[in-house]
Queue: 2 jobs
Job 1
Amino acid sequence: MGKKLKKQEDLLRPSEAFDTSTDIPEDEQWRLVNESNVLQGLVSQIPKRERETVERLTFGDEIFNILVFLIPFSTLYFCMDM
């Protein structure tokens, strides 16, 4: 009848399917990361302006943000309160 079903003991457990143990010590792993400049590549993808400063919102922007949230939420609250 075609296919044979595998026995339960023949199947790998999920922990055995992907071996997460490392043979390389942590300090050696960090040395390889630093030498390959993997982290530098990630930092260079962030725009320089965003890395240097956080843009401060003006008072008008703060009021606008309050109204943007206040109007829909108060309308929703009013509708559910009826």
Job 2
Amino acid sequence: MNSNIGRNAFFCCSRYEVADILYVNRCMVSSYVDEHISPQLRASALLLLELLFIRDGSFSCSLLSSHDIYELVDFICTS
């Protein structure tokens, strides 16, 4: 398979034992996450998402410098 998206989809289907990618939808993913992800990990992921939006310019935050944002992203990703 040459497509990155196709390889990722195949990997996810194999990993989570999904026979057909057409059965995967937002509700299915959400219920899996709710069952298997701790509240702390979910909070970290949401914080990371917000920091990435700030870093990439989709959100703004005047309280933190670019360096602060990069440091926080690095901390969350490595802790």
